[in-house]
Every structure is written in C-alpha cells, then in structure tokens.
C-alpha cells in the first residue's frame, strides 16, 4: 500500500508540515512525505490555462498523487479558510483531471497555534475533497500546537489519540 502525506501550506516553518513529519516518523510505516512547494504553480487563471496549458508541476503532482492508495493531508488555516496556496493547488489539479483523487482514502489533519485547531479549514477540506473523488475517512485536529509540540515531539496526551486514529486509518 502506498501512502503519501503532505501539508496544505507553503510556509518553510509550517506547523502542519511538522505534524505530518511527526506522524510519518513516529509510525515507522512506509509513508512518503512530500512538500507541495516542490510543485510550484502560478496562481490559477483561465487565461494562463488557455495560453500555456496545465503547468508541468501540476502534471507531476497529479502523477505522484495517482501512485498513492491513501493520503494524509494536514490542512493549514488562514482567516478561517484553506490557505490560498493549497486552494490554488486544488484548482490546477482539478483542471488537469477533475477526479484527481478518485478512489483515494484521505485522512485530514489540522493544527494551529490557537485554540481553533484549524477546524474551519478541516471542515472545508472535508466538504471539498469529495468533489475530486476523495473518500475522506477521518479527521483529527490539534489545538495550541506550539504548546504541545516541543523539540520535535508531541506531548503524550496529544500523541496517543492522534497516532491511534492514524493507525486505524492505515488499517
């Protein structure tokens, strides 16, 4: 089974990417962690699409995602929404292939430095990703990330239930 994990953030210090890395490293399973910033695309525009076509980076990302049986996506939240960066990736991918997540089981994660835990972005992703064929199986949010994640580790009271949920998802 192929599992790919990534964060919906373009920040070099993304706490959502730190969360994805933590989960992948802690479970010791064959989870490939990718960075969406390795697939740089312009802001989606119909005019760009008509003039230049689908960016090569989008095509490569679509090919990469197609190899996965399951995805773990940690969504960052900006102003109660998905990040513009992640939304842009979704826009380009859906123009390349509307059902680019067909038959993919997805676990959504979210975290934030505040008490909201990225819950709004998680809910938006949960309702949006099925439009692209995904089956969102589960979701898990962590509030106050900077308080519970120290020196590359989550506190035990946060880590245990999270890792249990991810293990269930991975089957």
TrEMBL record:
- In the record, what terms sit under GO molecular function? FMN binding; oxidoreductase activity
Q: What keywords are assigned to this protein?
A: Flavoprotein, FMN
Q: Which cellular component terms (GO) are annotated to the entry?
A: cytosol
Has the keyword Flavoprotein been applied to this entry?
A: yes
Needed cofactors, names only, are: FMN
Alphabetical list of Pfam families matching this protein = FMN_red
Query: Where does the NADPH-dependent FMN reductase-like domain start and stop, copy by copy?
Result: 1-142
Q: Does the keyword Flavoprotein apply?
A: yes
User: SUPFAM superfamilies, per this entry?
Assistant: Flavoproteins
What does UniProt give as the signal peptide span? Answer: none
| Name by which UniProt lists this protein | NAD(P)H-dependent FMN reductase
């Amino acid at each position: 089974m192929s599992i790919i994990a990534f964060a919906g953030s373009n920040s070099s210090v993304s706490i959502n990417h730190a969360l994805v890395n933590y989960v992948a490293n802690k479970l010791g399973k064959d989870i490939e962690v990718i960075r969406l910033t390795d697939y740089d695309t312009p802001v989606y525009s119909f005019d760009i699409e008509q003039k230049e076509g689908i960016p090569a980076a989008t095509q490569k990302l679509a090919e990469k995602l197609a190899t996965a049986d399951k995805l773990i996506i940690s969504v960052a939240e900006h102003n109660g929404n998905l990040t513009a960066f992640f939304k842009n990736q979704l826009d380009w991918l859906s123009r390349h292939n509307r059902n680019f997540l067909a038959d993919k089981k997805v676990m959504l994660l979210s975290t934030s430095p505040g008490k909201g835990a990225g819950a709004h972005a998680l809910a938006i992703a949960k309702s949006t990703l099925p439009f692209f064929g995904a089956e969102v199986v589960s979701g898990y949010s962590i509030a106050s990330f900077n308080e519970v994640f120290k020196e590359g580790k989550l506190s035990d009271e946060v880590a245990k239930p999270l890792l249990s949920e991810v293990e269930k998802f991975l089957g």
